[in-house]
Protein 1
Amino acid sequence: MAGVLRQYQGDSLYLAAFAVCLVLLYWRDKKQGGRTGKKALAAVVLSVVFVFNELAYRVVGKITNATTYYRFFWMLPVLFLIAYQFTEAFFDGRRRRRLLAAVLFVICLGFGTNLFFLNRENLNLPKNSYGLDPNVLTIADAIMEDWEGDEQPRAAFDMYLEYQVRTYEPRILWAISRNAYLYQAKHGYDFKKYVHQQHMIAAVNEGLKMNQQALRRSLDKNGVDYLVIRTEFDMDSYLSQISVMPVMQSENYTLYRVKTAKNKEGKERI
């Protein structure tokens, strides 16, 4: 259980707040009629049995990808108990406590950095509300402005950008699957499994200038419309030989358009 907690608490204070809320719940429950804090004890037992243990981790991992999605399952008892306890504490009919809750809420907003309507930099909703890498906003906006197809554009990014782009612009589809990235990270470039994505991973992740025609076949096989590669890899000349041309540059990345003779409707693509 300790390993599961260490893995998923990260640098957050969720577990600390959870523990404080358990203590408060126990104290309040005992104070009301001398009971033994049954609510707090029940919360602890249920959380340990169904969430905070290796068995629950493995069971949930069989259904979903535990390394990615278990955090959401883990946060259910934590967030619900915190919300319940703070609601009980601040909204029990006492005007002073409601005022204190409002002050604390304003303080939290005031100390937020690019996450709230009110923050250090401005008094309105910032464009980069998720605190994403600025390259993400520039590249994603450029793709959607350049795209002229009827369907959603498909782009290949390095693993660093991939999730962030989908957070900002979900209309852009991944050309490289997460499973292909995980396989490559574990086994290297053996090109046996996910063979049609390995060449793209080599290009966008490390700027490897390998078999150009194999890369072109991978792009065509996966219906890729755009490549996004770090500018420092200097891929312009290598990619131009297979009709992959630069469109624009962000601070650290270059956006390339994959030119094809025809799109799916048979119309010419520029």
Protein 2
Amino acid sequence: MSQILMAVFCFVIYLIIYYLVGVALSKILKLNNDPLEELLYGSFVYELLFFVYVLPLKFKIVPVTTIGVIWAIFVGVMCVAIIVVLHKYIAIGLMGWINGLKNRKICFMLVSLYFIIFLFFIEFFGRLPHGHNQVWFLGWPSNAVLHNELMTYDTETGLPLEKFLNERYLSTFLDHSAIVCKLTGLHVMVEVRTVLTAVFILLQVIVVWKVASYFGKDSNKKSLFAFFVYWSIRNLLVGSQLLPSYYTVFRTYEGKGFVMNVPIPLLVLLLWKMYDNPEDIGYLWKSCLVIAGAMTYSLSMMFSTPFLLVSYIPFVIAKKDMKLIRNMMVLLFVSGIYVIIYYLGQKGIIDLTIQRTE
């Protein structure tokens, strides 16, 4: 029972932190004061902040407990500061969202009900009970909790690694899970397979609703129709291991599954909005943050983004707007930074050797 209560507590804390970070982001960049969007984009910014914080400490083999305590203090102070400074802004956004629900009660109820049903289905019937990939996504935080070090032990043999794995060390969301487990006593299986699963599914539902609302032109009936058509088609294709729906049901908490189902469709939506309003710099900011934040979950985003942008070229040519070309170059640059870092790691130019002091 204590693990269940702690899981619920951690889930709520995740959402509160994401939302508050998103509020600060929307205020700084003058974006929409929309709680759902703030929750969504705040998740990427939060993970990006943690990435910047934890990466050098990981290389220096700082104990997980030390990293966690410092980060918890920082996040606590940050959240309190955001509430104190932006409480009026928060109130305006929440009241506006609540008032907007008056005309969308049915939509809110049905979408929320779908989220709850889908979450319970995956929790009790979905996800692979075994599999090689679970060794990675459960092994890394488990080793971190056991040895008090981040990603320094082999997940299969349990032996100390000589080098950080180039394709894994940038995926810091697992480091965050290790810290959560170390500080709260939450079991790694519960944090990764239950809490992260719930967070990832909620973010998926929000993204799909945003896509459905945009293409439904904010009409309740059209948006609901688009929402359920989207999920129906995806769920029918769940049998293929190459499609996002498979990851949603069977490998929900994995980095690739997150990238397939949250940042990529969100980036497609942003590119579409960017096409309609190329002068709105807010879409470019959001796209950059989505790409950079998604890299902290899986480097699959590093390879996916260029292909996505290449498919966008015909729209850029058709629009004949230099702002769109500028936006594409910026997004390629952001993605290219990670390609360069990965390449330098592959060639040994970035030293990934694990250097313990003892």
Protein 3
Amino acid sequence: MKLVERFLIELARAWDREEQPRLQVLGSTALMLQTDFVRATKDSDVLRTLALDGEVAERLLALAGPSTPLARRWSIYLELVPNGLPFLPRVPVWHEVPLAGAPTTLSIEALDVVDVVVSKLKRFSANDRSDIEAMVARGLVPHDHLLKRFVDAVDVFTADARASDLPRYVENLHEIERDAFGVDESEIELPEWV
């Protein structure tokens, strides 16, 4: 069993509220929950939805946030990511992840592998690049599907102040196309004002 799975199982065991929140997991944790991929990570990113506001969010962070006993035990902590922050298609795809031995106090969903790859094209750190390359190498990211989901995310971002960042995301996509897929760069249309 992977470290992130043990961390989430212990969080589910510690959850002591009537609410049964749905944790929508992003980033490398989502990849590890759905594939054979393993790498070190210090945090488990969860999308902060309306259901995870207020007392529910406070309790989750009190149990598993930075510097909590749970975080110190597993060397990983829960981080709530604001809903509008990730670079995602209009309707992200989530997959329920059953955790063997975990009580049903929490529902865990992982962001689809291709949508995780799209989201990682925003920050595009060294870890993001290696995560993307690992998913492509495993054959889990069909190029045509990646392009479709990427263009959908671009459409979402053109409607607000983040549109000025889109050329950089396109450059990041082109780098992955060249280096990981070994294909020519795709033509991505951006609005004239970007």
Protein 4
Amino acid sequence: MFLEPFKAAAADGAIVELKLRLLAGRVPALQQDAHQKNLEDIEGEITRHFDGFLSAEDKETLRLCRQLRNKVLHSDFRAARAKLGELGFETLSGEVKKIEVPVISVAAITKSVRDAKDEVKGSFQYVAETSPSEGGVYGRFLEAGQAGDFQKASAAFKGAAAIVDRLAEVEKA
């Protein structure tokens, strides 16, 4: 259900990495850094080289977007949500509910789903409020999708890409 928004966010995050690597490859003083394994190292060299053209907010955006990209690509959706918050995005609950089905039967499943739908106390937990291990990857994926986190991540990545594009223009001048 949320594979397309996830794919778009992952692609936008990958574009930021590619742009950082391409920029490093264009700048003679940074060319040796373009193929470093860790993007953090490339980002660090770029921010040092272009220090006078970057605000503290720009540097923080690049840093947090790099971390957000890792969280999205590695399906750590709870941590990705925390990074979105650090980037200034409002992170609301997707109101995805986790229900326990004590006995696998049509009657038990029907009752558990009905109780959760009717919000019977103790019949469910909101995934956003569960511990990392309780929500599960699928629950966290649904939560992130329902809450619009993938679209927010795409917007953050596009902002970071614009910063890198601006630096590429500085390098041309």
